[in-house]
Amino acid sequence: MTFGLKRSSGALDAQDPGLPDESDAGTAQGAARDAAAKPREAAAALPSTEHMIRSEAFRVIRASVFSSMNVSAAVLKTRDEVRDGVAQIVADLVERERMNLTLAEQVLMVDELLNDMFGVGPIEPLLADDTVTDILVNGPDHVYVERHGRLELTPVKFRDNAHVVNIAQRIASAIGRRVDESSPMVDARLADGSRVNVVLPPLAVHGACIAIRKFSRRNITLARMAQQANMSNEMARVLKIAATSRLNILISGGTGSGKTTLLNAMSHFIDERERVITIEDAAELQLQQPHVVSLETRPDNSEGTGGVTQRELVRNALRMRPDRIILGETRGAEAFDVLQAMNTGHDGSMTTIHANSPRDAISRLESMVMMANGNLPLVSIRRQIASAVHMIVQVERMRDGVRRVTRISEIAGMEGDVITTQDLFVFRYDTTTYNDEVKGVFECLSIRPVCAGRAAYYGLEEALMEAIRQ
């Protein structure tokens, strides 16, 4: 039984110009070339993970490891505590069966076995990579990641579709949810807060699909977003004042545009003395305040009962004496109850919504309220929105992969039957340039904000007007 190494087409040979020849072997230049060649030779000598996890040798070793140890007891220990035992089993088996495996291959096998036991299998290294923001598994053979806003295919492979399903079921069961043929879709989360969506066959035609939105390990703040050119410094100051002044804020944008990240950043300015209740489908908000109650929806059980929706959680949250209610995403009939909460003393509430512009966000909100109460006149719905929502922040992932706050708008009131808005800031991109990088400026429209009176109540009117004038 063998597990040979495959040398890449770019492997070094005698004709490689990076290798020293006899004429310069003794010179400093030759020594430098020697040093440069060693990392490339080491990289060429690394075993292929894809061939390894699908080899007969790995199948035999994996079966032997899992049959010779108490896995249920092992998972109660730490990864480092189990590593030595697994490594010893692998080494003994390789010696007993006389497998042609190098030490590097054995180490790689031990890592893969530990990833299966404690992590999420072959994609565990991708979770540890801080440059990766999304991991997309399309069956066992295609694993994509997003880096810097761009998708790229990785060499990571699973053993087979059953391996992908097994990882998906482990993720779901960790938070008390199930995913199988009878319930082939689930929203879940990892221990670090990363959001996970799973779709299994027969709904996923070409194999089980897993989509992971990684939770950033860095503490993203408005100041850092301004440094990264996601917004201007003045926009960051206005958003800080808006959160501190307890404005009701709607964050609008497309999928993957950074709505939740911005919501997390704005939540830093909530007073520590306030009681905050968060409501989400899969808990991913990471608020820093000491008095935070996190609520999470629950899907129906196998009998089709027992589910708890966001709307029910919003209604219950009103009985929990909240100062602010933060809804991870408004997507249905709960919009009616969110507006009721904003209109009944729960100022400073925030939520996100999928929409392409502030005006679209208002239209979507109207439609959602009508889903909850179809008998309510449209003008009445609009009056509720105009009195409940103070500010709409539009975010967008642009074609260069950079997330930007493209518009900060206020709801100014009603004119007849129409909700009126005014823009405080707009991102205007340069239409004369079209390349990999989107160029433009964050423009302040220097309009006196409607919320200036509310900012004055918190002693922030002067700071607000200074940010608007600059």
Describe the structure.
The protein has 470 residues and is an alpha/beta fold. Helices cover 38% and strands 20% of the residues. It has helices spanning 28-45, 49-53, 56-68, 71-74, 79-97, 103-118, 124-128, 161-173, 222-227, 233-244, 259-266, 310-317, 334-342, 358-372, 378-388, 452-457, 461-469, and strands spanning 132-138, 143-147, 150-153, 185-189, 195-199, 209-213, 249-253, 276-280, 292-296, 324-327, 350-354, 391-397, 403-415, 418-429, 440-444. The strands form two sheets. It has a nine-stranded mixed sheet with strand order 9-8-10-11-7-12-13-14-15, with helices on both faces. A six-stranded antiparallel sheet has the order 3-2-1-6-5-4. Helix 5 (79-97) packs across helix 6 (103-118), helix 10 (233-244) packs antiparallel against helix 17 and helix 14 (358-372) packs across helix 15. The longest helix is centred in the N-terminal third of the chain and has 19 residues, at 79-97. The model is unreliable at 1-47 (pLDDT under 50).
Helix and strand layout, with pairings?
Elements: H1 28-45, H2 49-53, H3 56-68, H4 71-74, H5 79-97, H6 103-118, H7 124-128, E1 132-138, E2 143-147, E3 150-153, H8 161-173, E4 185-189, E5 195-199, E6 209-213, H9 222-227, H10 233-244, E7 249-253, H11 259-266, E8 276-280, E9 292-296, H12 310-317, E10 324-327, H13 334-342, E11 350-354, H14 358-372, H15 378-388, E12 391-397, E13 403-415, E14 418-429, E15 440-444, H16 452-457, H17 461-469
Parallel strand pairs: 7-11, 7-12, 8-9, 8-10, 10-11
Antiparallel strand pairs: 1-2, 1-6, 2-3, 4-5, 5-6, 12-13, 13-14, 14-15
Helix pairs in contact: 3-5, 5-6, 10-17, 12-13, 14-15
InterPro entries: AAA+_ATPase, P-loop_NTPase, T2SS/T4SS_dom, T4SS_GSP_E_ATPase
GO molecular function, one term: ATP hydrolysis activity
Domain AAA+ ATPase: 245-399
